[in-house]
Amino acid sequence: MRLIERSSLEEIGDLPTERIARELPQLIGDVLRAVANDKFDPGELGPEQYERAAALAELHAGSERSAADLARDITALQSVIMRALRQELDAIDPEVFADTVERLAEVTGTIQAAAAEELVVARSRELETLANTDPLTGLNNLRFLQQQIRQLLGVYKRYETPFAVLLLDIDGLKRVNDSHGHQAGDRILMQVAMSMRRSIRNVDTAARLGGDEFCVLAPNQQAAAAQVLAERLAAAVEQEVTTPDGPAVGISIGVVACPEHGEEPEQLMEVADRAMYKAKAGGESVSVGAPDEPEVAEATKRS
Which of 35, 169, 239, 281 has its Cβ near the most Cβ atoms within 10 Å? Predict the structure, then answer.
């Protein structure tokens, strides 16, 4: 079929399928070769064909377009190919033409299904990301942190791999909000988040818990090593984040580790919270948890 040998279909440029023709020209060849091949099963796609079909969904990624828009694009593409086929097959028996059109419908239906499936998966990933992300800072949120700490606990209980928890609180954010408004406070929160990203390892998880509290999960770290990470993080925030008045912003960090300070999420977060308030009360940036002194830490927190 001479149509298969063409590098493009001119009519496509005037339809919503223009991006398909421009960015996925091989997909058009897939359709035509499948229609021309009597041995091709229209209900199945090879790995490369499926990959190109799934790539149709990427043309819609990040837009407000729906699966219905995707279906309309593929239907328009099918109409263009059908008109071109009709011109090519004018001299062929009508029954052969009908069979060819039927195969075209089956092939494009299979491609549409593959593209729609990928679009649904992509949108699900987007929703999952939104559900796990703090909208202001772009860090992970409390929901995601809780999932990760449960996962790290599972790894510890199976392989005895330790991990550390760093609980952070920004010093003086309320003063900034009261003096300069919440927009100024939000800028500080975003700057702190940027400092956290630059200071932690790729394997670490940074999250904003809400308000002025943040947290870092550090896999395969004991408290001593995590303290070094916390000190580096505190120094980065002090150097990089400033208030509208000019002075640097500080943070107070409580450091704990599993199993040194507990083997349950609530216990670890409670000890880290006490350590954080101990650092704040003592004018220090970092304090390692002391689970054997709860009454002292609680008194410090209340003061």
Answer: 35
Q: Which residue has the tokens 């952070």?
A: 168
- Active-site pick, 73, 134, 171, 212: 212
Query: Would you identify the CATH topology of the domain 142-302?
Result: Alpha-Beta Plaits (3.30.70)
Q: Where are the domains of the chain?
A: 2-131, 142-302
> Is 212 among the residues known to form the active site?
yes
Confidence of residue 262 (pLDDT cuts 50, 70, 90): very high
3-17, 73-87, 112-126, 270-284, range with the lowest pLDDT: 3-17
Spell out the SS3 assignment of 200-250: CCCCCEEEEEECCEEEEEEECCCHHHHHHHHHHHHHHHHHHCECCCCCECE
Pairing of strands 286-288, 250-258: parallel
- For residue 76, the model assigns a pLDDT of 72
